[in-house]
Specification:
By secondary structure, the chain is α+β, with helices and mostly antiparallel strands. Helices cover 18% and strands 33% of the residues.
């Protein structure tokens, strides 16, 4: 087909599979052959292209692909409510159109990672389209910086349709990886500014429609808290079953949900409604609550709260955070309970309706409701500590973990003095050394320097290569950390793995991770492998505004084959940070029977239900820790009545008594020694229980789902232990990476339900 080119001030378009050139706001690359159109005048065709571009669609008889326009009332193209967070899985909504022929293929999203490498995200499902069909689809991607490019494509067996958006920030607002993001479905919440603005990070609210809800659980990864307002139940009519399943899966794997139920309590608690799964008790009825003095006191408001509709429940599970009087009885107003490894907060009122939207007490209620975002405030001197930490490139504890993992015991590091001495010797030899050797010692003409100079350069190059090989011995080295969480109630296991791969040479890797058969036999385990970002503003950090072009050969993040990285290029003597999340079913039947008394002391027996032994085992519940001596064997049962207990915060802060005063061990945010990894992990796993930012001086908002402090407060006991062996296998091209060259840290947490002792 003859090639036709058109140029407009904001758009370059080339038919017949050519590559466009242009900068604004997008390029269109229809590389799937299309039948020749009927028309002939160049001016006419150019006009049609111009009109189509105004609508955001390039029309042709072939295939076209586009982002759903941000002004479309049905959905927003990227993220939630026009916002997304870098370094997190992000939903991208697309529209596909076919021409006269049917086709099938895969959605391919392309951007760059935090290291500036191009990366393609090949979506899992194959898409089949009939002729002249239009369909809206959702893909998932992880952006590497605040100024990213995006290429959306549809890959068939023959070719690919591609569209490039030069600046994603023009389509949606980019947020830093550690910025809190609260998503609201079912209405809007007025912003709360007074106490939140005083916090170190501003909270972003995003009101979304049903069409914006992800259909995969990892699409919620950037969401800190999801608030569901049920004052207008019609807002949930468009939520599909896959979207409900994804939301529930996200909660059970560590997400946090707030459910606001007032006047529509009967419908929400109906077993046929999808929201019924998030209810903590038995529905009694909807009542008008006129006695509000207790709420005014709890939330420190001098303004009277008007009467409101309230859903009454009985026998709530979890913890009643706030209750209010109604006659002679107490009604649960705020109930916090566990669902899997996540948390659900039920508010028995419509927070999106009057009088709550205008009541001054919201200033106190909302920060408390959005878990931990205002709690655990940093100590005085925040600005000084931020300035002190600026040079390390991170302000989140995950950054400290990455810094500790990016050091390899099997890779020799040459002292700076040796490197400087070699450089000085080289400069000396090619300068005065070459002169004296030719003129004084060998009595040769200086023309011979054309031979001696390259010989010296080659000699030192060979010396550098030899020293490099001596340093790493040609081995790929992997430092790996994994946290395995098992929920005995749901029978689900969640794995979180961080890996730092060092490559001694320029090479490409096809990486995959497989959970150990000792832990689960679920062949349908879902594995998500991707690059790991650095939560900071420094060089290579996710907060860096630098823009990287989509150039060079891209490696592939594949959802189709169990979560693989294909064609990952790692430069010589460099490392690559990876993160993996996986989940599966586990047959971990337990004989544990745990009961807590009114003082929250734990009694009963606990069993190790796994096929692995645990060392340094400890049982955690509420504010207490119970130490288990020796090795806890697989299947072994231990009586908690015989164990000594210690205050949990004391344990996490390693407090000691000095001169009749308890003194905590000061945390050093700059300590990135490999030997410090277990302590970093300990605080990541129970960040809130340790005191949060008030103790660590670092945030924990990037990958905060590993913090199970909330589970300790919602009727769960946690058995924590360390494994000597790794519980997942990292492979390159189906070949297991050498265990002799690896350092690994494996921690297991098992969650058990706890019954409250009846009075």
């Amino acid at each position: 087909m003859a090639q036709k080119s058109f140029h407009l001030p904001w758009l370059s378009y080339r038919s017949g599979g050519g590559n466009p050139v242009g900068s604004a706001p997008f390029d269109v690359r229809p590389s799937v052959p299309c039948p020749r159109g009927q028309g002939g005048a160049t001016v006419v065709i150019a006009g049609l292209v111009w009109l189509a571009s105004l609508a955001g669609v390039i029309a042709s008889d072939g295939i076209s692909i586009e982002l759903i326009d941000h002004q479309d009332l049905s959905a927003t193209a990227i993220g939630f409510g026009g916002q997304y967070k870098v370094g997190h899985w992000t939903p991208v909504r697309l529209r596909l159109k076919t021409g006269a022929a049917a086709c099938r293929g895969h959605i391919v999203l392309k951007t760059h990672d935090s290291d500036g490498q191009s990366v393609e995200f090949v979506q899992q499902e194959e898409v089949s389209l009939a002729a002249n069909e239009e369909r809206s689809l959702v893909g998932y991607i992880r952006f590497g910086s605040l100024e990213s490019q995006l290429s959306v494509g549809f890959q068939t067996d023959q070719d690919r349709v591609t569209r490039v958006y030069q600046r994603v920030s023009d389509l949606a607002t980019a947020r830093r990886s550690t910025d809190p993001l609260v998503v609201v479905l079912g209405g809007e919440l007025p912003p709360v500014t007074t106490p939140i603005q005083a916090a170190p990070t501003k909270i972003s609210y995003a009101a979304v429609a049903a069409a914006e809800m992800p259909d995969r659980w990892h699409g919620y990864e950037a969401v800190d808290t999801l608030i569901l307002l049920t004052g207008q139940l019609s807002a949930f009519d468009g939520v599909t079953q896959p979207q409900w399943s994804a939301l529930d899966r996200w909660v059970q794997l560590g997400g946090r949900l707030v459910l606001s139920v007032g006047r529509n309590g009967a419908a929400v608690f109906d077993s046929q409604h999808p929201l019924a799964r998030f209810n903590p008790g038995q529905f009694v009825g909807v009542r008008q609550q006129a006695e509000t003095a207790e709420l005014e006191s709890i939330f420190a408001s001098s303004e009277q709260l008007s009467a409101f509709d309230m859903t009454a429940i009985r026998n709530p599970q979890g913890v009643v955070e706030v209750s209010i009087a109604r006659g002679n009885e107490q009604q649960a107003f705020w109930v916090r309970f566990a669902r899997g490894m996540g948390q659900v907060d039920l508010i028995a009122a419509d927070l999106g309706l009057s009088p709550w939207t205008s009541w001054s007490g919201r200033i106190s209620l909302m920060p408390r409701l959005i878990d931990g975002l205002s709690a655990g405030r940093p100590r005085k001197g925040l600005d000084m500590r931020v300035e002190k930490l600026a040079h390390v490139g991170y302000r989140d504890i995950v950054g400290q973990l990455r810094g500790a993992m990016d050091q390899f015991e099997n890779v020799r590091i040459f002292p700076f003095g040796l490197v400087a001495a070699l450089i000085a010797l080289y400069a000396l030899l090619i300068g005065p050394g070459d002169f004296f050797m030719l003129r004084r010692w060998l009595a040769l003409r200086m023309q011979w320097t054309w031979l001696t100079f390259p010989l010296l350069a080659i000699l030192f190059c060979l010396l550098a290569i030899g020293l490099s090989r001596y340093r790493d011995q040609g081995q790929v080295v992997v430092n790996k950390v994994e946290i395995i969480d098992v929920d005995t109630q749901s029978g689900r296991v969640r794995g979180t793995t961080w890996a730092q791969l060092y490559s001694p040479r320029q090479a490409q890797y096809d990486l995959s991770l497989t959970p150990s058969g000792r832990l689960t036999t679920d062949e349908n385990a879902e594995v998500l492998m991707c690059w790991q970002g650095l939560p900071g503003d420094g060089l290579g950090g996710l907060g860096s505004p630098s823009t990287n072009r989509l150039t060079g050969k891209a490696y592939e993040v594949s959802f189709r084959s169990g979560g693989q990285l294909r064609g990952l290029s790692v430069p010589v003597a460099s490392s690559k940070s990876l993160s993996v999340r996986w989940s599966a079913k586990v047959s971990a039947g337990s004989e544990s029977q745990l009961v807590a008394d009114r003082r929250h002391f734990l009694r009963g027996e606990i069993q190790n239900p796994l096929n692995v032994d645990l060392v340094d085992a400890v049982v955690l519940y509420q504010n207490s820790s119970y130490m288990i001596d020796g090795v806890l064997r697989s299947g072994q049962v231990v009586s908690l009545n015989q164990l000594s207990h210690k205050d949990l915060r004391w344990k996490l802060q390693q407090r000691v008594v000095v001169s009749n005063r308890d003194v905590s061990t000061q945390w050093d945010p700059e300590d990135v020694r490999p030997g410090h990894v277990p302590r970093i992990l300990e605080l990541m796993m129970f960040y809130g229980a340790a005191g949060g930012e008030s103790y660590v001086d670092l945030t924990h908002r990037y990958q905060s789902y590993v913090d199970l402090s909330a589970a300790l407060r919602t009727g769960r006991a946690i058995l924590l232990g360390r494994c000597h062996e790794s519980l997942s296998d990292l492979s390159d091209q189906q070949k297991l990476l050498s265990a002799d060259a690896n350092a690994h840290w494996t921690y297991v947490r098992v969650l058990f339900p706890v019954e409250m002792q009846q009075p």
